[in-house]
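Handover notes (outgoing to incoming on-call)

Open items:
1. tRNA (guanine(26)-N(2))-dimethyltransferase: sequence verified, structure written out, both below. Nothing else pending on this one.
2. Nothing else urgent.
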Amino acid sequence: DTVREGRAEIFADKSNSVFFNKAQVNNRDLSIAVLRWFVLKRQEEHDAQLKGRRADIPPEQHADGLDPATTGSEDTALRKESSLKAPKVLEALAASGLRAIRYALEVDGIGEVIALDNNEVAIESCKRNIYHNGILASSKVVPHLADARIYMLTHPKEFDVVDLDPYGSPAAFLDSAVQCVADGGILMCSATDMAVLAGGNAEVCFSKYGSYPVRGKYRHEMALRILLACMESHAIRHKRYIVPVISVHMDFYIRVFVRIFTSASTVKSSPLKFSHVYQCVGCNSFHLQNVGRINSKDKRNIPLPNFCPTVPQECSECGGKFVMGGPIWSDPIHDRDWATSILSNIRATSGLYEAYAKISAILTSVSEELPNAPLFVSLHSICATLKCTNPTMVMFHSAIRNAGYQISGSHADPLALKTDAPMSVIWDIMRCWVKLHPVKSQPENLPGSRILSQEPQLQGIVLSSNWGFSCTEEPKIST
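tRNA (guanine(26)-N(2))-dimethyltransferase structure tokens:
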């Protein structure tokens, strides 16, 4: 019996001694879509670099200092000198080899694909599947029996693409993986231990990823940011840093795609990309504070440790205590240009993806997310705290925008509201809503009662049936 996915076909293992997860077709299709765009982007960057180098060369001088009349055209010599090799791929945990075979068969311009596993049964299965898929797969995919951590450590900066898709946590592989990726290459990494990353086992999360999760509605996005922070912390030990291009939560796991570069000077700015999260235990208001800060009087722009927490001892909205989480990655987790370009490519070749509906929906949402609004609030959670009726999402979006802030949804939660508005503005808008839609009396010691006991500082009026707000004055926001 065989299993077919994309252009690849592998032998079915009814005992599942070599692990195969059918549900991960979404993961594999998205990875192929990202990898296709990476190959194009890599060539585009190379051509731009080549063009820049060519522009720097005086017309009378050849690239190697010789006379062009005797050595041939300058462009030809320069291309030979700077030829771009096909990207080399490492699938560090290959199992049946399905993913590696699909990369070889479905991604044009891909080079050698190393299918690595430390299980002999898996490698034998991988060999059979490679042979079964014909000449192209056999010429590109190379099975190899080895421990992924040791193999990656002994092949520094060798692979343009490294794929980590473990069963569970990738934490044990990250330090060697960030060293294995070539400059400008891409590391694709999954994590399926969502109970740990989403706050079910905070102490285990800290031991694996060096960060405390907070159990909020935004827990799946926080899981992504914890993984990214962990990857960056491993990279900076080797004077390298990450640039996220796509980071998604789907099904039962998270998947991140990051590019890796080397720069000792850029690494010094890493503390500005990390933040601690302070979440109120009463009303779930949250605040972020960067680990590092820039001294405006120092022209070198070297980050220094940040000052004391900006949050008070008690929440200014409901009087609750704050619990601290993190540090997490607080820089953008997506590159919007990548997301829109990949989405366009997917739509143009929709027949190539079995999971087209799923991955196109996710990338559509990703391309519309606010880049500089870490985490999010849930409208249903806010209304549950106040025990009030829910405004529609359109109404709330209108209110935020009329207050002068930006807002978007999130791919991680259909009820999410990502906004750059502070929590004080959000609660003020809801106080205005409750004035129009009164709630039943409730005990004064509840967080919602304490929030509603304050008069709204942001004055709003109903403009239309969509409950749009118009600010009669600038918001007076307490810090």
